[in-house]
Design goal:
This protein is an alpha/beta fold. It folds into 2 domains: 123 residues, Rossmann fold (3-Layer(aba) Sandwich), CATH 3.40.50; 168 residues, 3-Layer(aba) Sandwich (Rossmann fold), CATH 3.40.50. Helix content is 46%, strand content 15%. The chain has a 6-stranded parallel beta sheet, sandwiched between helices. Helix 6 packs parallel to helix 14. It starts with 13 loop residues before the first strand and ends with a helix. The structure holds nicotinamide-adenine-dinucleotide (NAD). The site of nicotinamide-adenine-dinucleotide has 24 residues, from helix 6 and helix 7.
Length: 374
Amino acid sequence: MPVFDSRSFRNHEQVVFCADEATGLKAIIAVHSTALGPATGGTRFWDYAAGHRRSAPIDVAETRGEQDAIYDVLRLSRGMSFKNAMAGLRLGGGKSVIIGNPKELGTAELMRAFGRFVNRLGGTYYAAEDVGTSPEMLGAASESTPYVCGLEGGDFGTGDPSPHTALGVFTGIKAAVKHRLGKDDLAGLTVAVQGLGHVGQYLTDHLRAAGAKLIVTDIVDANIKAVLAKGDAEVVAPDAIHAVDCDVFAPCALGGILNPKTLGDIKATVIAGAANNQLETEGVEDEQLRMRGVLYAPDYVINAGGIISVESEVHKERPDNAAREAKVLRIGETLTRIFEASDREKRPTGIIANEMAEDIIRRANEAKLAAAAE
Ligand code: NAD
C-alpha cells in the first residue's frame, strides 16, 4: 500500500506507529499540521479487523484492519486540521487510533502505555476522547503525559464538550435557514433530528426554545423518552428520519447518512447537524445536493463547538465562558461565508470549506517560515 504518495497521507507532518508488547498496545498517532498550534484530536479505539474476520483468514483480516486504521487516522487528522482552522483556533490537526476491541484491551495499563508515546511527542500532539475511549481511559493516559485534553476538573479542565457542540449546531442551523429560506428565526419550521445522544438532546432543547417543530428518532428508547419528557415531538423510525417532510434535517448520530441510497429521499431544504463525516464521498453528495437547491452545512464547520471548548485547556488557560461562547457563535458567520462562496462559484459547500481551511493553514505555515527566517 503506498503511503507517502497516498491522498490521505499528503501534507502530514509526522505519523508515529507505537507498540507495547506488555499491554498489547498497537497505536498510530498522526500529526497532520502544527501550523496553527499543537495538533489536537481524539483517540479512537476500534477493532478495525472485526469486519474483515468474517470474510478472510485471520492474518489477512489483521493486515486489512491495519490498513483501514492507517487510512482512518490520516483522514481524521487532516479533518481535525481543517476543523480547527475554520473555527479560528490556535490548534493544529492530529488524531490517534488504538487498534483492537476497547472492551477486551482497554485497560488502564494500556492507556498509560499510550500516554507514554503521546508524551514522547513533547506537546506536538494532544489526545482527547473519541469513539471507543472514555473520560476514565483518557484519565489513565494522563497519568503518563500532560498532553491530554477534555478532562474533568483541575485548573484547566473543560469537561463535556456536547453542550457547546449543540450550541454551535443550533447557530449553524439558524445561519443556514437565514441563507436559504431568508428567515431570521426558526419559529414554525420543522426540524428532523437523527440521534438523541449527548449533542442531539441539547440541540432539541435549543430548537424547542426557538419555536421549531420537532421530528426525532433514535435507536435507544430511553433517549427518545428523555426528549419527549421535555415537550412535544413526532417520533419516527430510525430508517425513516432522512425522508420526512421537514425544512431542516439535522444528522446527529453516525457518519455516512448522505449517500446514494438516501439522497433521493431527502425533502429538507437545509441539512445541518453534528454528526461527523455525513457525506459518503466529499464533493459528490454535497454537489448533488447543491444542484437540487439543498443547502448542506459542512459537518466539521458546524460541529466545531466541542473543539472550541477544549482550546483553552490545551493552552493551559482557565476556561472563559464568554470568550468560548463568542467563538461558538461565530460558526454561523463562517458558514454564511461558505454558503455565499458556494452560490457565487457554483461549487459544493464541502469543497469550498476544505479550500478555505487549506488556505488558512498554508498562510500560517508561510508566516512561521518567514518568522523563522528573520
Ligand atoms: P452519542 O453517542 O451521545 O449520540 C449518538 C446518538 O445516536 C445515540 O443516542 C445513538 O443511540 C443514536 N444513534 C446511533 N445510530 C442511530 C441510527 N441509525 N438512527 C438513529 N439514532 C442513532 O454521540 P454525540 O456525542 O451526541 O455525537 C453525535 C454525533 O456528533 C457523532 O457523529 C459525533 O461524532 C459528532 N460530534 C460530537 C461532538 C460532541 O461534542 N459530542 C463534537 C463533534 C462531533
